[in-house]
Write a structure and sequence with these properties.
Elements lengths: L14 E4 L9 E6 L12 H5 L4 E6 L3 E3 L2 E3 L8 H20 L7 E6 L1 H12 L6 E5 L21 E7 L7 H13 L3 E7 L7 H12 L3
Parallel strand pairs: 2-3, 2-6, 6-7, 7-8, 8-9
Antiparallel strand pairs: 1-3, 4-5
């Protein structure tokens, strides 16, 4: 049958929806979580950069204002309340998408920096198996709570984690050690390191696109 893409929406966040490049019998959506001080506008390049016509995109703004942009949790203060609040909002967003007809297995998370932390946090605790979680240039919150606080399906989730050897914002070694610990706990993750600072490279995006294609 011919399928016309839904105009996906959410009551949880300011957002922009970008429809897929081609029609499909199902909606596959990437929820994009930006970094500190950014907004959904900073990721409007992503559909063209990844070049995956099967995907639609839901770009969202984090809940808190931060110097002209937005933040997922307090930077420089106590991050815990904001992380927990943002986690619950993203869980609600996933539920909203499912209620609009998108299977949980067709929902993908893409997060950078603070958004990376949120994507990992949600992925490890989500009660439903998602299509995949791509998390870039961030680290793991509440590491001491794992594996006890893994959801019942955490080990069925699929993660792609990337980081830069020269990242001045989120140091490489502590993050890499966290990722290694998650892997030893049974989390299905692929880790890729790049010669970069706190940014996203085109060759990195090429690798991410290849990984995403393997998940659809």
């Amino acid at each position: 049958m011919e399928y016309l893409s839904l105009m996906l929406t959410t009551q949880c966040f300011e957002h922009r929806y970008i429809s897929p490049g081609k029609k499909s019998e199902r909606e596959r959506v990437v929820v994009v979580l930006h970094g500190l001080g950014d907004s959904w506008r900073g990721f409007t390049f992503l559909p063209e950069a990844l070049g995956i016509d099967e995907f639609s995109y839901l770009l969202v703004n984090a809940p808190d204002s931060y110097y002209g942009g937005f933040s997922w949790y307090d930077f420089g203060g106590d991050p815990v309340p904001g992380i927990i609040r943002s986690r619950e909002l993203i869980f609600q967003l996933l539920k909203e998408l499912n209620e609009q007809g998108v299977a949980y297995s067709d929902i993908f998370l893409f997060g950078f920096s603070q958004g990376c932390l949120m994507a990992i946090d949600v992925g490890l605790r989500c009660p439903e198996v998602l299509g995949g979680i791509c998390a870039i240039s961030g680290h793991v919150a509440f590491m001491e709570e794992y594996p006890e606080d893994f959801s019942s399906v955490a080990k069925q989730q699929h993660f792609l984690l990337t980081h830069g050897h020269n990242d001045p914002m989120v140091p490489f070694e502590p993050a890499a050690q966290q990722f290694q610990r998650l892997h030893k706990m049974g989390i299905d993750l692929e880790f890729k390191a790049y010669d970069k600072v706190h940014t996203i490279l085109q060759n990195e995006l090429n690798d991410i696109a290849l990984w995403f294609r393997g998940r659809i």
